[in-house]
Write a structure and sequence with these properties.
mainly beta, Neuraminidase, globular, about 5% helix, single chain, about 325 residues, 22 strands
């Protein structure tokens, strides 16, 4: 009887345990490798307004590496956020990486025991304060985190997002140049009706946050996977679709005019670039914009869905739009 009571006590004390394996956590001393990944046929000079500068294939022997669904830039760092609530901070010089650290969210929905508790799909990072806003799928909430990227300071579960589905929620989150926040519903591939979106007047997690409902129409067969704002205020929306068999992805960038972003609007824009080949027909899920010496740069990262045999591709482009 004593052993049974001991086992029962362990089960009660282990948070969230329901027979499922613990969420894999990337080791702080994991080695991350990078190699150049030239596309077949060589680099094109231009992809619409994009000039390809390079693409890296990232890999690690650590089984928890990968699954990167969001991307942000801070100083000289590329900050990759996995769909398991883990940040990988990298400094990049050519094909050489200087790993700055691995950070795991200590706060979030649920206990953090299972991947479903930390299904982080979108990210806004304030380069001045270090605060971060993260979109969680499954619970369809937005959380604000302190600069340590571990501890939450606020959260919101907007009523319209409750109908966004378990695995088709806030895939894209972007802060506009005027301080408003735009969040897009991922929906599903081939979704014929426009995807719902919310436009917040400011910090979505602030007390009394005000939002308006609008919609985004992706190219046919595509679903939005992330968004970033250009220096002039226009928004680039990354869209992807998949084919099977064999498993391959197409990815395109759509440009949304800043003046069209308002409550009640239907956001529609032209495809400005097809990134499918550059991204090795992988699952492009994160996009970010930086300005370097007056030049606008576009960064895109893929999610390998935790498949060891698939690469994580990080590509960089110069914007000539």
């Amino acid at each position: 009887m004593r052993w049974f009571l001991s086992l029962l006590a362990v089960l009660l004390l282990v948070p969230g345990w329901a027979g499922e394996a613990r969420l894999p956590v990337l080791s702080s001393d994991a080695t991350v490798r990078a190699r150049w990944l030239p596309p077949r046929g060589g680099w094109p000079r231009r992809l619409g307004p994009l000039e390809p500068l390079g693409a890296l294939s990232l890999s690690s022997d650590d089984h928890a590496f990968g699954g990167y669904s969001a991307l942000a830039l801070r100083g000289d760092e590329a900050v990759l956020l996995s769909d398991g609530g883990q940040f990988l901070r990298l400094s990049i010089a050519g094909a050489r990486l200087t790993r700055r650290g691995v950070v795991s969210l200590k706060d979030g929905p649920g206990t953090g025991w299972m991947r479903q508790d930390r299904d982080t799909e979108s990210l806004v990072l304030d380069r001045t304060t270090g605060d971060a806003w993260i979109g969680f799928e499954r619970v369809n909430e937005i959380w604000r985190f302190a600069p340590d990227l571990e501890h939450a300071t606020a959260r919101i579960a907007p009523k319209p997002m409750r109908r966004w589905g378990d695995n088709t929620g806030p895939e894209s989150l972007v802060r506009l140049n005027d301080g408003r926040f735009l969040v897009l519903q991922e929906g599903w591939r081939g979704m014929r009706e426009p995807h719902e979106a919310l436009l917040f007047a400011g910090d979505p997690t602030a007390p009394g946050a005000v939002w308006g409902v609008l919609h985004y129409q992706p190219p046919e067969g595509f679903a939005p996977s992330d968004a970033a704002v250009l220096p002039n205020g226009d928004v680039l929306v990354l869209n992807r679709r998949w084919h099977f068999p064999p498993l391959r992805f197409d990815s395109v960038l759509v440009r949304i005019a800043r003046d069209s972003i308002r409550p009640g609007a239907l956001l529609v824009g032209p495809i400005v670039a097809d990134l499918s080949a550059i991204m090795a027909h992988e699952n492009a899920e994160g996009v970010a914009v930086s300005v370097e010496r007056g030049a606008t740069m576009i960064w895109v990262v893929t999610d390998n869905d935790m498949s060891r045999w698939r690469p994580t591709v990080l590509a960089k482009f110069r914007w000539h739009g």
